[in-house]
Amino acid sequence: MPNELQQLWESLPQAMASDRGRLRGALQGVQRLQRDGKPFDRSLQRVQADLERSVQQRAERLQRLPEISYDDTLPVVQRKDEIATAIRDHQVVVVCGETGSGKSTQLPKICLELGRGIDGIIGHTQPRRLAARSVATRVAEELKTPLGQGVGFKIRFTDVTTPNTYIKVM
Fold it and tell me: Do 170 and 124 touch, CB atoms closer than 8 A?
């Protein structure tokens, strides 16, 4: 049984980000039951089933990932590798550029290419409602995915997303 528990701990990073905290707590609960000599078989089976479901959901999201292409004429794309390295290596990155340089449409795609949005959703904020809808529409077109599927938006009480959404513009 301890080997089985260890395997569950090792597969935790492959779960959806939104499930990891709950699953970590459940695994700790199973360990506590085991340590105290109490029956833990049903708890272990429940955690194992939840973890497998979460890992499977993440694997399916990875397989459905849309093909990412870029417009090489945009200034943000010309510095894509530099920006991607900064995003990968730092928790906060500030990107400045002229209007129309591709910040709003290309940065979420760079994040997606880095593997963000697989475990959860890339949150993309826009200052105006109209901008949020148009940016979501544009990114969805560029990723060749229906609006609300790979890319969605939320404006006030209107939420055009699904559990399969990678990028959510708000």
Answer: yes
Chain length of the chain: 170
Which CATH number describes the domain made up of 75-169? 3.40.50.300
d(CA 98, CA 101): 5
pLDDT bucket at 132, cuts 50 / 70 / 90: very high
Please state the domain extents for the chain. Answer: 2-63, 75-169
Tokens of 52: 């497998």
- Token code pair at residue 81: 């590798």
Predicted confidence at residue 10, as pLDDT, reads: 95
Integer-rounded Cα Rg, in Å, for the chain is 20
Q: At what angle do helices 41-63 and 17-35 cross, to 10 degrees?
A: 160
pTM, two decimal places:
0.85
Residue range 40-63, pLDDT digits in tens: 999 999 999 999 999 999 999 999
